[in-house]
Amino acid sequence: MNQFTLVAVTAVLVAIYHNYFAPQPTVWVAPSQLKLTYFAGPGRAELSRLILSAGNVSFEDERLDRDAFLAIKPTLPLGQVPVLEVDGTTYSQSMAIARYAAKLTGLYPQDPLECLRVDMVSESLIDVKTLISEITYRTPDEAAKTEKSKKLLEESVPKTLKLLEGFIQKGPFFLNDKMTYADLQVYDLTKNGLSSFAGFSLSKYPKLAKLVGNVESTPNVAAYLAKHQK
């Protein structure tokens, strides 16, 4: 076998591998009917709203008042919102919905190591959001609320944000130039969660502050915010 034949055979084998054996990118087909149901405020559905909007996926954005929620509560899988209806089947759990939306829109990585990276960011943010919910909804005593808020801003938040600041390398997002659901989750947590606490600032975390600005200025996200955040 001469050199030219060897090169030709090698090229054929490489083509066969890539066409038939190499892992292929997953192609997600948007469902014909997608309805996200939650209350009017951001809360636990805002991340999914942001993801679907960022990915330019059409969905019905149903926003309930308290009476409307109570009317449908007995029909919901866990008696709570948000829920996502996909072609007639209803699903619950806010982060399950968010990650499905991320996969649907291409905002969830396909590389396993990149998945690990953004999921690590996501889980860190969930930990902080859980603390916020504890203070906001399950601490009626004002003195206790003040003490917990102080601890949140002085201990938990700096610890998490310092970690996330270090995850940002070349930017503008956690995976360099690829925006993922984790970037949108940072935006959601800072704008719709931490910003309600007096004294919160991203001034010590310039990379995160820039990331939030990058998310906010993404055309599809900017269009969604212009419509819903007057």
Q: In CATH terms, what is the fold-level topology of the largest domain?
A: Glutathione S-transferase Yfyf (Class Pi), Chain A, domain 2
Overall strand count: 4
> Number of helical runs?
9
Give the strand order, joined by hyphens, for the main sheet.
Answer: 2-1-3-4
In angstroms, what separates the terminal alpha carbons?
72 Å
Report the average pLDDT across residues: 92
Describe this structure in words.
There is one protein chain. With 230 residues, this protein is an alpha+beta fold. The chain is 58% helix and 8% strand. Helix 2 links the parallel strand 1 and strand 2. Helix 2 runs parallel beside helix 4, helix 2 packs across helix 7 and helix 5 runs parallel beside helix 7. The chain starts with a helix and ends with a helix. The model has no long low-confidence stretch (mean pLDDT 92). One of its GO terms (biological process) is glutathione metabolic process.
